Amino acid sequence: MFFLAVSNAHAQTRGTVEVIKDPRIDTLAARRLEGGSRTVISSGTATGYISTDGYRVQFFSGGNRDQAYSAQERLRQKYPDVRTYITYREPDFRVRAGDFRTRLEATKFMQEIKNMFSGLFIISEKINPPVQ
Asked: Which of 3, 74, 109, 126 has the fewest other C-beta atoms within 10 Å?
């Protein structure tokens, strides 16, 4: 009976936990909660840069890096004002174009390039603001 009283008393003892974290985590969490579809990004000297939800057209996906850069260059030659983005997610390179605010804009662009590339997709993701 004495053993049960001691173990029961020990089980009710509470300790303290000290959380050590970077204060920027709270700032990022607050921005995420209040931002909705917009995110404020601060990188290097460019502060106040705003990205928003939008669309891009994916026109290449494959495992060959040279082919990805070649596809990017073919699109740049015909559409020099359209930004292109190459990402790598094992095992594929993906090449996407545009910073379209609406799906309709992305669809129109996709129709323009459908003769140049096969397997086109519209991707919803964070986009960059227009160049001013």
From this structure: 3
